[in-house]
Design brief:
With about 200 residues, the chain is of the alpha+beta class. The protein contains four helices and nine strands. A seven-stranded mixed beta sheet has the order 1-2-9-8-5-6-7, covered by helices on one side. The radius of gyration is 16 Å and the shape is globular. The relative contact order is 0.23.
Length: about 200
Amino acid sequence: MRIGRALLLTAVTLASALTLSACSDGGGKPNGSAGGNYVTGARGISTVAKDVRTDAPKLDGETVDGKTLDTTELKGKVVVLNVWGSWCPPCRAEAPNFARVSKELADAGKDVAFVGINTRDTSKQNATSFEENFGITYPSLYDPDGKLLLRFPAGTLNPQAIPSTIVLDKQGKIAARTLVAVNEQQLRSMIDPVLAEQ
């Protein structure tokens, strides 16, 4: 019974935090996670040095289109995680940038995988319409209750707002994060350095 209450309390706390920070439009400087093994640049993009990165959690489950996905199976590729909701105006604003960059990198044969995490959408139909409208061709995990977001360890560059974007290096470690909607240039500035790592 105590474990159930603890999980419920954690879920309520996350939901409250996401409600307070939901749909950030980039108006303020994002707050860092506890720990401090990262640097936040002027554009609100936080990066972590290669030797002090933390493993990303296993993110798995059903996708918006009814398939299954496990991000740990993507090791060996740079993974771009985008937390979004169809109801979120900044998510709609940044979606064309994700569609364009993901297609260009795929066409160029780069070792990059894009994965969305659709959260707080009560209907897959809304999420599917969003993906169709913006030409999103990569998979999105369906996470209506935000449970996948709870898997990120405290003190890491975890998603604390909607939208959030996290870049994982080829070893599955958290390399970069932003808590605001990104344009194409910002998105590439998060991906390219990690992709260039040896």
